[in-house]
Design goal:
This protein is an alpha/beta fold. It folds into two domains: 141 residues, 3-Layer(aba) Sandwich (Oxidized Rhodanese, domain 1), CATH 3.40.250; 118 residues, 3-Layer(aba) Sandwich (Oxidized Rhodanese, domain 1). Helix content is 27%, strand content 14%. The strands form four sheets. Strands 1-6-5-2-4 form a five-stranded parallel sheet. Strands 8-14-13-9-10 form a five-stranded parallel sheet. It has a two-stranded antiparallel ribbon with strand order 3-7. α3 packs across α9.
């Protein structure tokens, strides 16, 4: 089987659906703020053999005050094993919005040392538009699990987490970069949120952006004329070159560490290294009393 480590097309995924080492994960999350709910979603609609990657519960540090916080290696390993994921698994991740939260799951597996993990380009909406096979969750699983909205594997996997350094950073490291400017901070939120002209969707979070950061709304990475698929590697490279002319290391930020991972995936496709994600992102920065905030 050919292995994929960044993106995989719907055609390529369809061709390997019967491979024994394939694990398909639905990493969709509920709409945030004013986001429109998807037309088709888990558990009524999912790709055949998909398992549920529950970002809000199983794969988050529930002891953290911040949403979607990266859990520790032991926690992640147990949750991945419960999904029947093995060391040799080819993981393919998608979500129900085309590409929103799937990149976060991709980045988390990469941060835990798993290389053969890819995001489905176009996600469930494009898969459906091509009339590729779908089913309802639990059709081949346990009805009790379906009732919980979380189908897992009947066989425990042997996935072993190998936490990698320098995949995530915290507010202290970001604060240092405001003065040092050794890294470029990119913010994946919509421009009106970046400029602070609209209220944040989370209560108690200030509006604005991290001083010295630059705005790269994640939607700019998609080709709207081509079903919302990722732009080409050359186009993505040009986008990063315009924002990071000195080719400095980059810190990706967003609302809660989810869409920042879309920027990280795009950077990886572009062959760029030395990229980190600010895990707390604006949910943390905008709620801390002592952090600097800029508008405009």
């Amino acid at each position: 089987m050919t292995y994929f480590q960044q993106l995989i097309s719907c055609t390529d995924l369809h061709a390997i659906l019967d491979c024994k080492d394939l694990v398909v994960l639905d990493a969709s999350i509920p709409p945030v703020g004013k986001m429109k709910a998807p037309t088709h979603s888990w558990p009524e609609h999912c790709i055949v053999k998909a398992r549920r990657f529950d970002l809000n519960q199983d794969f988050s540090d529930l002891d953290s005050d911040m949403p979607h916080t990266m859990p520790g290696a032991e926690h992640f390993e147990c949750a991945a094993q419960a999904l029947g994921i093995n060391q040799q698994s080819q993981i393919v991740i998608y979500d129900d919005l085309g590409l929103f939260s799937a990149a976060r799951a991709w980045y988390m597996f990469r941060a835990m040392g798993h290389k053969n993990v890819a995001v489905l380009d176009g996600g469930l909406p494009y898969w459906l538009s091509l009339n590729k096979p779908v089913t309802s969750a639990g059709a081949d699983g346990n009805i009790d699990d379906l009732a919980k909205g979380n189908v897992k594997s009947n066989v425990k996997g042997d996935f072993a987490a190998n936490a990698q350094e320098n995949y995530f950073c915290d507010w202290r490291e970001v604060e240092q970069q405001i003065d040092k400017q050794q890294e470029v901070i990119l913010d994946a939120r919509a421009n009106d949120r970046f400029r602070g002209v609209v209220a944040e969707p989370r209560a108690g979070v200030r509006s604005g952006h991290i001083p010295s950061s630059k705005n790269l709304s994640f939607g700019e990475l998609f080709d709207v004329s081509n079903h919302g698929l990722f732009k080409s590697a050359d186009e993505l490279t040009k986008i990063f070159q315009q924002l990071n002319t000195a080719n400095k290391p980059m810190v990706m930020s967003c609302g809660s560490g989810v869409t920042a991972c879309i920027l990280a995936l795009a950077a990886d496709i572009s062959g760029l290294e030395h990229v980190r994600v600010y895990d707390g992102s604006w949910s943390e920065w905008g709620s801390l009393a002592h952090t600097q905030v800029e508008k405009g």
